[in-house]
Design goal:
The structure is a single chain. The protein is an alpha+beta fold. 31% of the residues lie in helices and 33% in strands. A hairpin with a 4-residue loop joins strand 3 and strand 4.
């Protein structure tokens, strides 16, 4: 009986430490927007991994032409930050692709192990599209007790702000183009 009581006491003392030692949890964020343009026309404009001319945050892109899985692009943002992105999946028939950023400069985006899906699909009612960006990532500081600028809130706020700027700028760009032709 005494051995059982000692074992139970030790187990109860260790469990809280194990619970705290697990580190950060995977965060997710999704943003979508409806665009007054047919899905095929939207995909033609934004479906190339090597072309981010539609992204209002991007100053330039260095990439090999095409949409080959494992291709890498170096994205220079208008604020001077640089992101290295790898094409993980590409499906033209489903009008979607996935990028990954296994290594991220947390001064540019306060996250680690970032992945993102971009998808274009028909929207309800008429010849419209829904563009969706879904991201999964960890906060910028992988250990316990992160600094405020690298915690879950900072990561979530930064990803949400980035996605909102991208989809709003994309909508404005696409709809301006579609009305000028």
């Amino acid at each position: 009986m005494t051995r059982s009581l000692v074992a139970l006491t030790l187990a109860l003392m260790v469990l809280p430490g194990i619970a705290l030692a697990h580190g950060p949890s995977r965060q997710k964020h999704a943003t979508s927007i409806e665009v007054d343009m047919a899905p095929a026309a939207v995909w033609q404009k934004i479906g190339n991994f090597d072309d981010l001319s539609w992204n209002p945050l991007v100053a330039s892109v260095k990439a090999e032409p095409g949409n080959a899985v494992n291709s890498v692009r170096e994205v220079t943002l208008k604020d001077g930050g640089v992101l290295r992105q790898e094409l993980y999946k590409y499906d033209a028939a489903r009008m979607s692709y996935q990028i990954q950023m296994p290594e991220v400069d947390t001064a540019v985006l306060p996250v680690t192990n970032y992945s993102e899906f971009l998808t274009v699909k028909p929207a309800a009612g008429g010849d419209k599209s829904e563009i969706e960006i879904r991201s999964a990532y960890y906060r910028g500081y992988p250990n316990n007790e992160p600094p405020e600028n690298l915690n879950d809130k900072a990561a979530n706020d930064a990803v949400a702000a980035m996605q909102e700027k991208v989809v709003e700028g994309l909508k404005a760009s696409l709809e301006t183009v579609s009305y000028t032709h």
